[in-house]
Design brief:
The protein is of the alpha/beta class. The chain is 22% helix and 20% strand. Strand 1, helix 1 and strand 2 form a beta-alpha-beta unit. The longest helix is centred in the middle third of the chain and has 10 residues. The radius of gyration is 13 Å and the shape is globular.
């Protein structure tokens, strides 16, 4: 069940960088987004096993900020909670 509010994302370009496990880590995404051709990106799976990750983990997974380009966080957990 999805809880909370999901805001609309506005993409500056129509091309998006798809998540590819083992390839699109934070460094790769940053390189591609810096080229300026992608309008957004999604992280590799962030695997959760014991609860919500801390801020440090989230920042590491998301990589350096790109204020004008949305980056989504893809989460994999053993259950809905």
């Amino acid at each position: 069940m999805l809880r909370g509010r999901v805001r609309d994302a506005v993409f500056p370009r129509r091309a998006l960088l798809a998540p590819m496990d083992g390839i699109t880590d934070a460094a790769f995404r940053s390189l591609v987004l810096d080229l300026g051709d992608a309008g957004g990106a999604v992280t590799e799976f962030l695997r959760l096993t014991t609860g919500a990750p801390g801020t440090k983990v989230l920042r590491r997974e998301l990589g350096p900020p790109h204020p004008s380009i949305p980056v989504g966080l893809q989460v994999m957990a053993p259950g809905p909670e």
